[in-house]
Structure prediction request, 284 residues.
Amino acid sequence: MSDIVFLNGSYLKKHEANVSILDRGFLFGDGVYEVIPVYHQTPFRLKEHLDRLNQSLSSINIEPPFNENEWLTHINEIITNYTDKHLSIYIQITRGVSELRDHLASTQKPTVLIMPSPLTIKFSELKPINAILLEDIRWQHCDIKSISLLGNILLKQEALSQNADEALLHRNNLLTEGATSNIFLVKNNQVFTPPKSPFILSGITRDVIIEIAQQYQITIIEKELTVSELYDADEVWVSSSSREISPVTQINDKIVGQGGIGAISKVMHSAFQQFKQSLLDSPR
Ligand SMILES: Cc1ncc(COP(=O)(O)O)c(C=O)c1O
Prediction:
């Protein structure tokens, strides 16, 4: 059996799971989400993902529908029904169904979806990508993992139309993040990433990278970075739960550094793989 989803208390086949047209997620994009990678049937950084989900919910005044154990029960049910042992778990919570399409209409209870999908990249793959630089046109609460992703989608479409895999974003010349990722750059063997702020999503992968870098005597400095620092970087990579660490080898027409995947990107990628493995090897 595969592709079973959890919707509002029931386990259903994906194509048989339906939501009302009066759901505020459908009408207004009024909801939040999470994407949790699962390796060898084990959710990666589950607690951190659930903490961020609770933060997103609290920011939009929705009560968490489940505690950590309840989430784990439902997520494990989805995982065991899925055909592949590596997957991605998508959680979406909307404010629920209202009587009318009205901005302020009240709802009885949130709509909760847990849906599995394949991981975007192959397990442990290190794949270079190219990017373009764009003005960050999104709203001012990018720290909330909102399902209203129109800004991100327009940016991603623009990247695709220019044959790029990702859009790197700046606000008034300061780098924020990628349209679907956080950004790191390397200059003279030092690694930098923009600080947490309402203008970026606090990436779970970003935090893991900062944490494990210390074990390799690599310090990651969180500071504001300009567009010219990006173009001047020796190495650039983006991070996300779906792509882990993806080296960016070209930005617009400019080759990054010496071209190819840089040494620190390789070290960090292999450190990340080892970290994943160590969690799977340790008793749970
Ligand atoms: C805009 C944005 N920033 C950053 C990230 C990376 O976050 P995480 O590492 O938690 O997946 C994502 C992931 O989807 C994202 O969409």
In short: The radius of gyration is 19 Å. Residues 129-280 form a domain with the D-amino Acid Aminotransferase; Chain A, domain 2 fold (CATH 3.20.10.10). The helical segments are 24-28, 46-59, 68-81, 150-161, 204-213, 227-231, 263-281.
